[in-house]
Design brief:
The chain is mainly alpha-helical. It has 18 helices and 2 strands.
């Protein structure tokens, strides 16, 4: 029975992968030979000129490298860049299945994979040549690696090092407590640290994800000192591995480009310009009036030719609680746009809300915390024109939430039918 279930799951997953690939190939043909967006052209250009992985650039190097590898064999660079997105998008379907299967069950995994494979929003964005598919893949894998069950620690002991039933025999000898399982700890540190570093080398704003995820890992489980200390050591070591992979890029940005934070400062200036157009803009009648979720000082500084850095954009030209109000408003805008972006999938939003609530109460709460952390940088700019593709990485998590809610609803319906049938049978026997 178990073998037949596994076989059926594998066949269904293969069908879903084929369906998702077919829809993406259809989208790739529909796009045709049209010129891609400027960001994609920039990645292709930087990739063609790439000679060192850690070269200082305002574009993070991992996607530049994958773009170089994908486009090198092809004469049509634009088509090859879109092909890259399609490949990563298809892999994302499979990874979504495995993560949902681990968190819930194979049924939820297949349902989440089907949603990712067929959702119009995901399909439309799957062949544009952006890095969001790779980014989504790495976020899911990072969460899986950090919160994989057999690498978690319970009461100061790694689950892979739990004693077997035979070891519970009484003994007259005083054995010292066994140390935590070193292979499990090393696996956690190396795999999560590697994926965290690759995540930051895809988008450096992923530092929000890394810090929040590691804090969540350190807080999950027993708060007794041996267990907490072991988790803190593992989290710090994982962060050190990620930093070892990431710091050479940051250092080279400072040495070669004169700005250690060029990967964010350049974008901060662009978003300041957008905010200036929306909030301040024209000075024919003097400085703009105050605005709740946009600083008139930003608009005034842009008009004066000020070059913005990240710190300027976040703090220097803000007032009071703008630092909190702006992302709060951004999250409101994000949740309002979900219904528009996800198309027919919005009908499943009640199930997604139920699933997210259930996951928050379970050991798999990382499936809610990590996507919310990943939206923090986007919340700052959402009001000023953040594109829909910026939310692509959240959809696989949304699909998992939805299937958790559907799973619970089906289980509740089955229980209600069973109780109703039992009551009807009792009444029939009584009659």
């Amino acid at each position: 029975m178990a073998r037949a279930l596994r076989l059926g799951t594998a066949i269904t997953l293969a069908f879903i992968l084929g369906l998702g690939l077919a829809r993406r190939i259809e989208q790739l043909k529909a796009v045709g030979d049209t010129e891609p967006e400027l960001d994609v052209q920039e990645f292709v250009q930087i990739g063609s000129q790439m000679t060192r992985f850690y070269a200082g650039s305002h574009r993070e190097p991992l996607f530049v490298l994958t773009t170089k590898l994908f486009t090198a064999p092809f004469e049509d660079k634009w088509w090859a860049a879109r092909l890259q997105s399609m490949v990563f998008g298809t892999l994302l379907i499979a990874v979504t299945f495995f993560v949902a299967r681990q968190a819930v069950n194979p049924f939820a995994g297949l349902g989440a994979a089907f949603l990712v494979a067929t959702n119009d929003f995901m399909v439309r964005n799957s062949c544009r040549g952006f890095r969001m598919e790779l980014y989504s893949l790495l976020i899911l894998l990072y969460g899986w690696a950090l919160f994989r069950r057999k690498w978690l620690m319970v009461d100061g002991q790694w689950l892979t090092d739990r004693p077997s039933p035979a070891s519970h025999q009484p003994s007259t000898m005083n054995h010292p407590p066994s140390p935590p399982c070193v292979p499990a700890r090393l696996s956690l540190i190396l795999v999560s640290g590697l994926l965290g570093g690759l995540l930051c080398l895809t988008r450096m704003t992923s530092l929000c994800i890394v810090f929040v995820a590691l804090a969540g890992y350190a807080c999950q489980g027993s708060w007794r000192w041996p267990a907490l200390r072991a988790r803190l050591v593992a989290a710090v070591a994982s962060l050190a591995v990620s930093a070892t992979l990431t710091l050479p890029y940051v250092v080279n940005c400072g040495r070669e480009r004169g700005d250690w934070l060029i990967w964010i400062n350049r974008h901060a200036h662009g978003w300041a310009q957008r905010e200036a157009l929306m909030v301040g803009g024209r000075y024919a009648n003097g400085p703009p009036s105050s605005h709740l979720f946009g600083s008139p000082h930003v608009a005034q500084a842009i008009a004066q030719g000020k070059e913005f850095s990240l710190m300027d954009y976040l703090w220097r030209y803000r007032r009071g609680w703008d630092f909190v109000r702006q992302p709060a408003d951004g999250f409101v805008q994000i949740f309002r746009s979900i219904e528009r972006l996800y198309g027919p999938g919005r009908r499943l939003l009640p199930f997604a809300a139920l699933g997210a609530f259930i996951l928050l109460l379970s050991p798999h709460r990382w499936l809610v915390i990590i996507p919310l952390a990943s939206l923090i940088p986007i919340a700052y700019i959402k009001r000023f024109g953040a594109e829909g593709r910026f939310f692509m990485h959240a959809f696989p998590f949304h699909a998992v939430w939805t299937m958790v809610g559907v799973n619970l609803a089906v289980a509740g319906l089955a229980w209600a039918l069973w109780k109703a049938g039992k009551a009807w049978k009792r009444e029939s026997v009584g009659a």
